[in-house]
Amino acid sequence: MTTGSYHGRLRRTGVRRLSAAFTAGAMAVAAVLSAPQPAAADTPWLGVSADRYASFSVPAAYVQDHVGSVSQVVVEGNFGPSASWAEFGLTRRGDVWSGVLGPLEPGQYHYQVTGDDTKSLKDPTNGASVTSEPLWSTFFVPGESARWLADAPEGTGGKVEPLTYRTGTGQRSALVWTPPGYVAKGGKGYPVLYLQSGEAEATTDWLDLGRTKQILDNLSAAGAIKPMVVVLNDDDSSNDKELKDLRKAVADSYHVLRDPANQAIAGASDGGSKALSTALTKPRQFAYVGSFSGLQAPDVDRRNAKEINRELKLLRLYTGNVTDPAYNVTYRLTQALGRAGVEFEFDGVNPDGGGNWDTWQENLVDFLPRLFRDVSDHGPSPSHGQLDGEFAPPPAGTTPTPFVTEDGFVTFETGSGFTDAQHVTVWANVAPGGSWLRVPLSRDGDRWRATVGPLDPWFYYYRLIVDRVAVKDTSNPTTVTSEPTWSTFLVPGADARLLSDVPAGQGGQVESMTYRSTVAGQDRTALVWTPPGYDPNRAQPYPVLYLQHGAGQNYTDWVEMGRAKQILDHQFLDGDLVPMVVVMGNGNSSNFNRELLENIVPTARARYHISSESSQQALAGLSMGGGQALGVLRTYPGQFAYVAAFSAGFGSGTGVDVEAINNGTKMLRLYVGDQTDFVYPSFMASLTTLNDLGIRYEFDGVTPGPHGWDVWQKNLIDLAPRLFKR
């Protein structure tokens, strides 16, 4: 199976997903767990805030009772880039596995809870379910971009009912939507659309996952579509004989028009392929045809082009981006249709959608208003791109990973040492705001692969998770000293300019500074950035910023993960930065105040031409380092005129010399991530403390993102140009 097809088709969990990524033994385990259990309590596992953050709280006791002991719990769902299937890891806090993800884009989401890769269960507190996937739950995030997916006002929508009919193979059923005000007899009949699901989909998925009823109801209420009957049927009923039986049953049961000009057919995935094949081989049956991510390109005979063009009023093709398995197929199809002289329309490449329900919902919204009426717009949807050629990442094993395309699609690949693995993911900061998601990889020969994206221009870090064990991508030469299993890469672009390397020879210098730690009783190291043109003999000493890391990190992190050198280099060359020296010391100390003031600062002053004036000294840090900076401010007010804390709270208001802080501090600037930053509640509480004390401070406002480097890089970008200018 190719990399792309994993994201498009194997987003299923349970038996379907496991069949591609697990052994038969693992499949058997998942099957045993397929029956949903009643809720142990009424407390919802999922809460969605008005600002689109999803909070998950899964009782550990429930997990233990239903799947046994587990070492990890994830929420699997369509949270990944291009709405791909991904795993969001929860953290065990007391008796609950919990986590916050967001802000999520408006739309429909589906998910299940899984422990230790294979032990999946349904959220028993969520009544919204997926008929074809008993373990899945759904939730809807409202917003303008998803307005067609919202429920129509009560009593204003159409009606969905089952239709049972007989075929040569027995009795079958379909679902039928009739428009508001549908009249069963009298007057002119209704045109009809047959909407087919794919091989891996069920008829009910059009409702549970595609929100087709909501789309039809809303478009109908807006007067955007012609009144029609819509028949939802699965892939098994789309062969010629059974489709004929279905059409007869619809004609017998509903007030529909039977002539080809009032017949339309469309489908998603394999359903789109079969709709297209039916139209091309028997063009006198349907006048309107749509293929949403069709996975096969049927043969096109030039000799049939004239008849096809005469009979078809609309043939419109849709595809997602390169993560859609239909991407290359659609390209080949457009070329074949063009060579054969068959007239068609192409909606363009959906830049942010893969081969999944998010994309097919958009396809349906575009397709429906074009049916049974004349329209003036025959071009692609807004923001959709051209389909210039097939997508083919380098053959497995031929290039270091990850492989990054110009438009932000990233192909991850393992080495050949995991042929016996059962579950392999890439854990990366690819969720909204830079939170971490685990994207499943699929087998590709003796390796595992996945293409993810598009990713926004920025700096990314990741590690491989092989059967729940963190593994370094050994083909990526980047290293993170404090996290040996991590690797990094940059997606270039205008928004990531400050994180990119400046041209060789134009930036500042980073060098090691060894100092004796009287607190630790050993020699330690700091990294020091000096600006371009640093002159140790200039008349005026340089101002200095002491920049601290967080817990579990080290003095190397601001360079390896924070991109401090790149940020400072760019801002200096842009003329935004006061020439300064930046010292990144080791904050892992039992007494940071002594470590800083007795060891790091004196050594830096002896080694570099920096000022000892308080007005020319700044102290900042992230998380633990931010707390350390605020601790120095409390204990030695006025020692550093500029103080900043990233994702750290001030603490209690006892023993604080407010007057000394206000008189001795030119700028106290505070930063925090959004609700996904776990210090957010305590940080916001500390602002109240500062207000009550009367301490003057600046709050940058919430930085979108978690307790992670995406946030702290942005904090440094904001802070550095503000220093030593007052």
UniProtKB/TrEMBL annotation:
Alphabetically sorted, this entry's keywords are:
Hydrolase, Signal
Source domain of life? Bacteria
Q: Name one GO molecular function term.
A: hydrolase activity
Signal peptide (UniProt feature, chain positions)? 1-41
Q: List the Pfam families.
A: Esterase (PF00756)
What the entry lists under Gene3D superfamilies is as follows: alpha/beta hydrolase
This protein is called Alpha/beta hydrolase
The upper taxonomy is: Bacteria, Bacillati, Actinomycetota, Actinomycetes, Micromonosporales
